[in-house]
Amino acid sequence: MTGLAALKTEARKAAFARRAEAFATAGGAHAGKLSEVLAGYRGVPLAGYMAMRTEIDPTPAMAEAAAHGPVGVPVIRAAGQPLRFSRWEPETAMIDGPFGARIPAVEELIDPEILIVPLVAFDAHGNRLGYGGGFYDRTLEELRARRPRLAIGFAFDAQEAGSLPLEVTDQPLDMIVTETRVLSFR
């Protein structure tokens, strides 16, 4: 393992512990601030995610957004490939997809302008630490090459780190929304 890979592994381990503690003590939904942010973009195609394990859950805000325009969730095609996004609504039939992520049973692809991005850790400069597969970095790079996209990290406050080990391929976020605040980097 290279020096940077080892640093990322250690940063993830610490961040997972902080996130698990925040999840255990938080109780209830925390998508209020996210809903407030998304209200300013009604009707704009949006991609969220289906929360897994101790991730903060964006589905209440996604459900509100789905009443005004298309909302999708990520579909993993293969390791090393960018994500695709299949249309989701609160009543959509879901199945288990790769890596345990829930995906729509019937695929209908959308092209999101806004992406709600899960993360393990973030810093005060809009950087994120993901799970290590590079899916969102590849996806954001591909989408941003075609036209601007708004990438919103969604996390618990406790997931903030003083600094993160970064690579040139790591895609920055435009905004981070937590249960208590909104950080903008545009």
UniProtKB/TrEMBL annotation:
Any idea of its EC number? Answer: 6.3.3.2
Q: Which cofactors are reported in the record for this sequence?
A: Mg(2+)
The UniProt GO MF terms for this protein read:
5-formyltetrahydrofolate cyclo-ligase activity
Catalytic activity, as annotated: (6S)-5-formyl-5,6,7,8-tetrahydrofolate + ATP = (6R)-5,10-methenyltetrahydrofolate + ADP + phosphate
Q: Which domain of life is it from?
A: Bacteria
For this UniProt record, the keywords arranged alphabetically read as follows: ATP-binding, Ligase, Magnesium, Metal-binding, Nucleotide-binding
Which PANTHER family is this protein grouped with? 5-FORMYLTETRAHYDROFOLATE CYCLO-LIGASE (PTHR23407:SF1), ATPASE INHIBITOR/5-FORMYLTETRAHYDROFOLATE CYCLO-LIGASE (PTHR23407)
Family per similarity comment: Belongs to the 5-formyltetrahydrofolate cyclo-ligase family.
**What protein name does the entry list?**
5-formyltetrahydrofolate cyclo-ligase
